[in-house]
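Provenance

Sequences were taken from public entries as deposited. Structures were produced by running a predictor on each sequence independently, with no templates supplied. The record for Flagellar basal-body rod protein FlgF from Marinomonas spartinae is shown for reference.
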Amino acid sequence: MDRALYLAMSGGVETMNAQTIHANNLANVNTTGFRADFEQARAMQVYGEHYPSRVYAMTENPGTRFTPGSMIQTGRNLDVAIKGKGFLTVYDSKGQEAYTRDGNLQINAAGQLVTGTGLPVAGVDGPIFLPPLQSLTITSDGSISIIPQGGAANQVAVIGQLKLVNPDPDNLRKGEDGLIHSKDGQVFNQDVNTQVASGFVEGSNVNAVEEMTHIMDLSRRFEMNIKMMNTIREDSAASSRILQRA
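Predicted structure for Flagellar basal-body rod protein FlgF:
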């Protein structure tokens, strides 16, 4: 009976792990540029100093859904959305290049272009710093043009260009920080064919109905594991009573 109890227990734990993945997706249904995670279960043997006769289900995250989300028009000059495939390049908390679809850009107190969460945005030549300006325009290739503060309408200066990349999705992974990273740690080159739309942001690609359906299905599966553990406990108690009478 211990084998059945172990299977039921491990199944319940892994079902809770699967629920965590789908609950995180659902919680980010309105997060700009969020990419939904997949989950799957597979058989995993219990290894150790014994014959590997025990097998349990293990939940894992095999990948991330990279399909584009819906385009949301904001009319704000600092908002950009990737057209089709590709990513904006940012610097993560360790100063390494990472990638995102969140184009809700800001200018911090130091004049640096950052994301809505404060991460520095990478340009083709490094971080992007902006002088005091009167207006700003981001073109489809990611070039940033400004009219300096107090300047005339014809005094347009190109300050820099967003680093836009379009790597193979098979070489990408989503980190715990919510950013996209390369699996092998390589830095991707600028892709001249990737374009942005100014005045738009991209919504999450989470399907709320699909995620709710998964969560309800997993809840029923968890209840089934609990019922199985209770049945095993009752059977074990009944067997003990029979042995006591013998």
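The two ends are 20 Å apart (CA to CA).
The mean pLDDT is 89.
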